[in-house]
């Protein structure tokens, strides 16, 4: 995120959950007290993955003491505020900067703005990005995010923590970073397929992944339903293959009929030439993993 610090690509795999990081970092002692008061320690220790915009002690100190004390003593309101700092899925800095909004598990959305090397989440500045956890990622912010008044009562658990409520088609259609993928799915007439019983696994390219394809080539692909369908089905694997299982594979058969190669390089999982950037977005009929490059099947 520009000037914000990012974790080195070669750093070892994380060993702590998000709750663990919050509980052992002195800069998060107020956040830890808030998480405990809201009864969210178990949630932030869960499987995830999810993304937390974590306010420091200095961020909480910007709130007048009387207001902060009142917030810490109102469990429902506090829970709603804290869940406004959580986004479902593992959204790394490289993906955050391409967004304009992000839907939180509170139900309300935050605004994302990039100004030079500065990334803003509402009126908070990201001061450090990509702090890795075993169940997601933390981005550190300098201001506490306050949800709109009509979202203050929301205390729902993150979708990734509870039973999924959306199909794979539903996830694709409601995630801003999948808008090009959604257009492709519609053009290839695959909406009904991804609504089907499954289960299956979708390696979902982001808008940025599609943007790597020259515009003329992408336009031609979107205008050729048969070829587009073949390409999209090359992103689908039968069964619900969670991230922990993907890492054990060397190849996987796709619904296209061809195989993709799977390898782990420097702690990152590669599907052919694509890097997996987000994992284990659970759906009613399977699971979605986010990738940064569109997979192109071999010519037959």
TrEMBL record:
Pfam families the UniProt entry points to: Fasciclin
SUPFAM superfamilies reported in the protein's UniProt record: FAS1 domain
Domain FAS1, chain residue ranges per copy: 15-145, 165-295
Gene3D superfamilies: FAS1 domain
Protein name per the record: Fasciclin domain-containing protein
The organism's taxonomic lineage, starting at the top: Bacteria, Thermotogati, Deinococcota, Deinococci, Deinococcales
């Amino acid at each position: 995120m520009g000037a914000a610090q990012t974790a080195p690509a070669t750093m070892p795999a994380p060993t702590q959950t998000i709750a663990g990081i919050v509980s052992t970092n002195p800069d998060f002692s107020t956040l830890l007290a808030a998480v405990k008061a809201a009864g969210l320690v178990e949630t932030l220790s869960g499987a995830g993955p999810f993304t937390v915009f974590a306010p420091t002690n200095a961020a909480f100190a910007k709130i007048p003491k009387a207001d902060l004390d009142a917030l810490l003593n109102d469990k429902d309101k506090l829970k709603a505020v804290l869940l406004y700092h959580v986004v479902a899925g593992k959204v790394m800095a490289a993906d955050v900067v391409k967004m304009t909004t992000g839907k939180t598990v509170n139900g309300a959305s935050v605004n994302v703005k990039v100004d030079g090397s500065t990334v803003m989440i509402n009126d908070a500045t990201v001061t450090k990005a990509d702090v890795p956890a075993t169940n997601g990622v933390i981005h550190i912010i300098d201001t506490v995010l306050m949800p709109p008044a009509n979202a203050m009562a929301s205390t729902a658990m993150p979708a990734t923590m509870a039973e999924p409520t959306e199909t794979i088609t539903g996830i694709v259609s409601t995630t801003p970073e999948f808008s090009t993928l959604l257009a492709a799915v519609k053009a290839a007439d695959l909406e009904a397929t991804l609504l089907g019983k499954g289960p299956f696994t979708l390696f979902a390219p982001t808008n940025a992944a599609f943007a790597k394809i020259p515009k003329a080539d992408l336009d031609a692909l979107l205008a050729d339903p048969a070829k587009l369908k073949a390409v999209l089905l090359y992103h689908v694997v039968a069964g619900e293959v969670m991230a922990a299982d993907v890492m054990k594979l060397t190849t996987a058969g796709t619904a296209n009929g061809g195989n993709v190669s799977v390898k782990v390089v420097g702690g990152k999982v590669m599907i052919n030439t694509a890097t997996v950037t987000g994992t284990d977005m659970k759906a009613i009929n399977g699971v979605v993993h986010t990738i940064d490059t569109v997979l192109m099947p071999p010519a037959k």
